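TL;DR need structure tokens for one chain.
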Amino acid sequence: MSRDSFRFPAEWEPQSAVLIAWPHAGTDWADRLDEVETTYVALAAAVTRHQRLRICVPDATVETRARSLLDAANVARSQVEFLRVDYDDTWLRDSGPITLRAADGRLCLLDFRFTAWGGKFQASRDDRLVEVLHAQGAFGNAERRRIDFALEGGAIETDGAGTLLTTWQCLHERHPDASRQALTEALCTWLHQDRVLWLEHGALEGDDTDAHIDTLARFAPDDAIVYQACDDPADSHHAPLQAMAAELAALRTRDGRPYRLFPLPWPRPILDAGRRLAASYANYLIINGAVLMPAYGDPADTQAAAVLAAAYPGRDIIPVPCRPLIWQNGSLHCITMQLPQGAV
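>> reply
TL;DR here they are.
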């Protein structure tokens, strides 16, 4: 694979589909399955108004249940495709393929090792998900490249032009013996990037990913960064997120200019049996013509939608109810993986 022939596209570039895995009784969602399925149905309805949705299911029973729920919500069947594959859980941002695209339309699926965020959970089936789907022909003629290096899609952000954004906390936790220079070189080589911007601060309580960047800060078009802010001095997140905001303000574009910054509002604390849940507006999903925004039933939802509308002009901003998702420590972006144009 020639390093010069492929590129890591930004999320706002044209897509073929979004890939998800349906929750079922054999996943960690079992105790609140009905509740979380409402989020998946809302997600499916939003995606299929703009592009195709590919849904992983382990068996016919789960597929039948998913179909019935989608039909009841009038989700267009023509926009939905089911893929049969076993999986441990549904966080496809981290177990799904990271796709590179060449100018001639060729695709390369990077299949990094998935360790369930440093061995926190069982992940043997999730680690084989890309391999199994590729063997089934789910990605057409796309090349698959297995990389024996632990990396999750939620840990990295690209602007599509050779700049990667990530957090030191996450990558250092996965690879404690690797130097920053070694990690930078590895990421640049595999992901075809020219430079890596590292954030030292920022993490959310209730997040077991060790500070994935997609809960904190996201690239937007025209040298912009959207990030999760915290304006409540009494909140435990205030100091680290203020420090992260200062880091973002100090970053420079390739031509030496500061990035245009879009701070997202801070939702009120959401607790579950006394446990703080990681509610972040930064965990949004970009699709063709729209941005799907995690909504938490908070007054800040409206302000967050306005910020995203300013950062992504010309796109519909569609709220998706995500309180059920954060019970399992992730949100909207975490359960999805976009597939670039030509992948379906």
